[in-house]
Amino acid sequence: MSALPQRLSLTSLDTIPALFDTHHRPLVEHLTGVAETLLAEASHDSARVAADMGARHGLYPYLVPEKHGGAAVNAPDAATHVDVRALVLIRDVLGYASPLADAIFAVQGLGSYPIVLAGTDAQRERYLPAVIRGERIAGFGLTEPEAGSDVASMRCEARPDGDGWVLEGDKHFISNVPIAHHHVVFAKVAGDEETLRRIGAPEDPRRRITAFVVESDTPGLEQQSQQLSIHHPIGALRFRGCRIPGDARVGAIGQGFKLAMQTLDTFRISVGAAANGMATAALDDAIAFVKGREQFGKPLSAQQMIQGYLADMATELDAARLLVARAAHQKDTTGGRASTEVAMAKMFATEAAQRIVDKAVQLHGGRGVLTETRVENLYRDIRPLRIYEGTTEIQRIIIARALLEDR
After folding, report:
1. Which helix H or strand E contains 298, and what residues bound it?
2. Catalytic entry in 66, 157, 351, 389
3. Under CATH, to which class is 6-137 assigned?
């Protein structure tokens, strides 16, 4: 598509203004121009081009707190505050205009926020300004072949070695691998009992998860691309005698699990926003198609069953926007965790978007499965959102546990 449909203006800010602040309005106006540019691009399959877009349009500063040089969001003294509602607005528009640019933007945040939370001053000075400018693309090395939702079962190890560390193990499904300059990698500290005692490692191996920032060109690190059914830079990391300096550790020994969860809890809500953007694109295309397609002597849009599809799609989309905006508002205004609200929003928005995109494909008929149509691309683009940063099943567990504890 080369033009920006009017419906894109119906972001969460327009439909639920009470949950946003005045400084969000200029951002939405800026994002409209960003979307127009992205939609006009000839190709959306170049990861490096998509990564450069985030820098060119000034989006990466929203991933870093204002105190560390990020976007001014009325929190100049907050060392770890990222404006979650701004992230929601950005990913809503990126999800609409370029799911590839959206995915790279999201992982740029995941691979930077642990440094925001627990990095040394030297680490923050080295990495964060370059992330903001887009000179560095970040990765987030958490998932392993045998450790997905069960993060604590990871096998990747970090062994003390003189004044540094040696990493051994494998990570896979790590986004941004082909283009990342560094990864925040999570590994279990290992070694003999005397060494572990000397460095103060917890006795329980499952509590020894620690974060490290690893340059992509470090000897002993091999990166392998993995092919998905969508345009998405992803791959595996293989650590074989990969030696990193002592100052590569991010936070304390054993703090890695907490850092990973804090990072995911901050950015997970924006996954729902990306889903809303993709769902909006599918609804826009479906409306345009049924208004222009005639069957049985009248436009498809005149058929009551078709109208019912559109009504269901629009209602689910608005409900998803409400849940996402509520969770983002709570994250920004309470300063604390909003795990239940975030889980509800992530679960509902991604599942609803899958249903909306599926209906859009159905409404297109045979054209809906042609690779040249956007709804076919969206059908593949939306699917991973129900898995990454916490599967739908994990979100249900989070919600149910909260309900049971409250009662």
Report:
1. strand 298-299
2. 389
3. mainly alpha
pLDDT of amino acid 296: 80
> Is 209's pLDDT higher than 80?
yes
Residue 368 is given by DSSP the state G
pLDDT higher than threshold 70 for residue 1: no
Contact of 356 with 281, CB cutoff 8 Å: no
pLDDT at 112 exceeding the cut of 70 = yes
The Cα–Cα gap between 4 and 13 comes to 18
Question: Mean pLDDT across the stretch 66-72?
Answer: 92
Strand 234-245 relative to strand 209-215, pairing: unpaired
pTM above 0.70, yes or no: yes
Task: Tell me the DSSP string of 98-131.
Answer: -HHHHHHHHHHHHTTHHHHHH--HHHHHHHHHHH
User: Do 140-254 and 258-406 show the same overall fold?
Assistant: no
CB 350 within 8 A of CB 392: yes
Domain positions in the chain: 6-137, 140-254, 258-406
The confidence score (pLDDT) of residue 8 equals: 47
Tally Cβ neighbours within 10 Å of residue 219.
Answer: 11
Is 389 among the residues known to form the active site? yes
CA proximity to 238, closest of 104, 376, 141, 374: 141
> Would you say how long the chain is, in residues?
407
**How far is 32 from 14, CA to CA, in rounded Å?**
13
Task: Give the C-alpha separation, 354 to 357, whole Å.
Answer: 5
- Let me know if domain 258-406 sits in CATH 1.20.140.10: yes
CA gap 174, 139 in Å, rounded: 7
> What is the rounded radius of gyration, in angstroms, for the C-alpha atoms of the chain?
22
Q: Count the helices and strands in the chain (H runs, E runs).
A: 13, 10
Banded model confidence at residue 49, pLDDT cuts 50, 70, 90: confident
Tokens of 235: 């791959």
Instruction: Show the CA angle centred on residue 166, arms to residues 220 and 244, nearest 5°.
Output: 75
**Strand ranges inside 76-202, DSSP E:** 138-141, 157-161, 164-175, 182-189
The single-letter code of the amino acid at 44 is H
d(CA 157, CA 234): 22
Higher pLDDT: 176 or 77? It is 176
Asked whether the predicted pLDDT for residue 407 surpasses 80, the reply is no
Percent of the chain topping pLDDT 70: 95
The hierarchical CATH code for the domain 140-254 is 2.40.110.10
